[in-house]
């Protein structure tokens, strides 16, 4: 094995340092595999129950009436998430679109949206109208209220109670920390929050942004009272195979609203040709539990590698995980650049290019990104990025297999060693 890694550009010292860390993670990895096994059975059971057959893989065109594959897939998602209904479509272009759809479909002028978990993901700021933008909910006279988490990461129960009023119609709850430093929420904590909100006002629709969280635990937010659970198919549930798409799983009433909003009033869920992408949706969903487990092992491995080298890592090497994102505070711009170059060099696609920092629109500092993905922008594939500003934190996630995630992290470390930033 060592010879193989040496031939792949890893030095003996890096190999041995990483090997030792992997040995110590055996038990942790075993727990991750158990969760994947449970989730594999959940998905498989849903596919069997709904009689997935070869006929489901046929492409439809035009209006896509009576698309059996599409209808069956939506039922498979609904059964996996234990919801009444689901909308799973290539016409939902990304996670932001799925979230914007779920919100705009279920809010009406005069209603208020509440975020009880602080600032939402960047792209949602424009959807909501926190940042001025054309077509935001705010333009439709939908107001927004936010209650931040307390400094220890706990919910501000009194603040939330005070924020709920006669206009409050939807609560948006983001599971993953995204690119913030707050803790990611466990499904259990999400359940406590939903119960609290509903104890104050039972008809508040609770929507969970489930991006990066699917299949990391044995239960999903839909198991603890979420009315809508929403995510992207180029993250966990697409299993790396879905080339596009988003999903919303939830109550029949909420999903009906979403369907009418996605297509048109009167048409709803009945239209939407699948154009031949369904085989990848089915197969990707089937693989998703093990793909998510591989990415999760990569995140845990990286946390332990860089923690041992003295870097701040969020989450740390031992704490429980509720999403696949790992942050490492690299402290120096050269270190951030070297790390990303290592991830890139380890990729199956575009491994020969060298990522450089650039002035990305909408950011107040330069940003460096590494991704060598089969599907553009797919972040269930191994990818890393970070802004070139204090504290030079890199955020990374993904890896379609654990072995690739491991190699990517070893290569990132190798580049830090070569640059003289780390000595093993
Ligand atoms: C990725 C992500 C989104 C947005 O998804 P896109 O597919 O990039 O539009 C929203 N929320 C969270 C927490 C995410 O991680």
UniProtKB/TrEMBL annotation:
Pfam families: Met_gamma_lyase
Membrane-spanning segments: none
UniProt-listed InterPro entries: Met_g_lyase_put, PyrdxlP-dep_Trfase, PyrdxlP-dep_Trfase_major
Name of the protein: Methionine gamma-lyase family protein
